[in-house]
């Protein structure tokens, strides 16, 4: 929370304009996905710098050349999505928990990104989200979903990846991109404003031919192991 307040204080003169633009760009009938995403992609690095955070990114060359893929990162904290908005050049769609849909500003960002809202307690609604993702990925949209389902709260240790999170990729037969986040939890989930480096590593994708004979739970376990291995190899704590 202290770092969020620091970001707000150091951006106080920009906030009125940024808020105006965000509310304006919520008009999805007037502004296309590229325009809406470009604005977030432009201001997020400024906000991050003002929070005394640097991003170390690797593996962007691993992202599929064609759109229509799903990224599966570990989930460390509230800062995770900002690391993607900072480093990922192309528009993507997030899958977010229903608890976030009415929070001021998050609500507007959800609208801008046309995020899918999931209620993990409602199996039918969750299945509908999976179907929506499948359909949208097939049309060339990129997605971000956290297969742990919630923040780890264990620092750089991963929780179990849920097999159901991979159903949409399996149904769409699209590339699966594992992504390793390191020290992201230290940004907003600790009481510190010390200078911080957050790492984000885009790993080599799994294409349909790589996973077509696997069960969703097997894919989840394999992707989790790839990410944990990368975290263990790169972490500094």
CATH class: Alpha Beta
How much of the sequence is in beta strands?
5-15%
- What is the fourth-level CATH superfamily? Glycerol-3-phosphate (1)-acyltransferase
What is the tally of beta strands? 7
Structural class category: alpha/beta
Share of helical residues? 40-55%
Structural account:
The protein has helices spanning 2-10, 15-25, 33-50, 80-87, 106-113, 123-138, 167-172, 185-188, 208-211, 216-234; strands at 53-58, 70-73, 93-97, 116-118, 143-144, 176-182, 196-202. By secondary structure, the chain is of the alpha/beta class. The chain has a single domain, classed as Glycerol-3-phosphate (1)-acyltransferase, CATH 3.40.1130. It has a 7-stranded mixed beta sheet with strand order 1-7-6-2-5-3-4, sandwiched between helices. Strand 3, helix 5 (106-113) and strand 4 (116-118) form a beta-alpha-beta unit. The longest helix is centred in the C-terminal third of the chain and has 19 residues, at 216-234.
Task: Name its key features.
237 residues, alpha/beta, Glycerol-3-phosphate (1)-acyltransferase, 7 strands
Topology diagram in text:
Elements: H1 2-10, H2 15-25, H3 33-50, E1 53-58, E2 70-73, H4 80-87, E3 93-97, H5 106-113, E4 116-118, H6 123-138, E5 143-144, H7 167-172, E6 176-182, H8 185-188, E7 196-202, H9 208-211, H10 216-234
Parallel strand pairs: 1-7, 2-5, 2-6, 3-4, 3-5
Antiparallel strand pairs: 6-7
């Amino acid at each position: 929370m202290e770092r969020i307040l620091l970001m707000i204080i150091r951006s106080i003169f920009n906030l009125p304009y940024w808020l105006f633009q965000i509310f304006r760009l919520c008009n999805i009938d007037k502004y296309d996905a590229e325009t809406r995403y470009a604005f977030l992609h432009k201001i997020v690095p400024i906000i991050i710098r003002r929070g005394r955070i640097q991003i170390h990114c690797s593996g962007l060359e691993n992202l599929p050349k064609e759109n229509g893929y799903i990224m599966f990162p570990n989930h460390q904290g509230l800062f995770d999505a900002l690391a993607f908005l900072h480093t990922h050049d192309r528009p993507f769609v997030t899958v977010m928990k229903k608890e976030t849909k009415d929070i001021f500003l998050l609500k507007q960002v959800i609208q801008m990104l046309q995020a899918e809202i999931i209620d993990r307690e409602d199996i039918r609604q969750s299945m509908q989200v999976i179907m929506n993702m499948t359909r949208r990925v097939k049309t060339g949209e990129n997605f971000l979903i956290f297969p742990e389902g919630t923040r780890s709260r264990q620092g750089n240790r991963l929780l179990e990846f849920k097999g159901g999170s991979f159903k949409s990729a399996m149904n769409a037969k699209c590339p699966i991109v594992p992504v390793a986040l390191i020290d992201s939890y230290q940004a907003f989930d600790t009481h510190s404003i010390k200078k911080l480096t957050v790492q984000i590593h885009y790993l080599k994708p799994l294409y349909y031919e790589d996973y077509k004979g696997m069960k969703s739970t097997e894919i989840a376990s394999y992707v989790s192991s790839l990410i944990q291995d990368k975290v263990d190899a790169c972490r500094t704590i």
